Amino acid sequence: xxxxxxxxxxxxxxxxxxxxxxxxxxxxxxxxxxxxxxxxxxxxxxxxxxxxxxxxxxxxxxxxxxxxxxxxxxxxxxx
Length: 79
Description:
The protein is mainly α. It is 61% helix and 0% strand.
C-alpha cells in the first residue's frame, strides 16, 4: 500500500509521545520542530527522508528500525 511506511512511522512516533505523556506541542518542542510538522508526521502525511527518520529516532532515543517497524498485531483469541 502506497504511503504505508509513512503511516507506520507516524503511528510509532505518536505511541512514543503518548507513552511519555507529552502533548503534540510539547513533543514538537522536544524535537525542535514545528507542531504542524509533527502532526503531519503522526498522520502519515509527510514523506520523510531517511535522515529525518534517523534524526527523529536519535531525538527520542530509540533505534531507527523501531520507527519503521509496524506494531505487532494482537493474535485473535481462539474461542
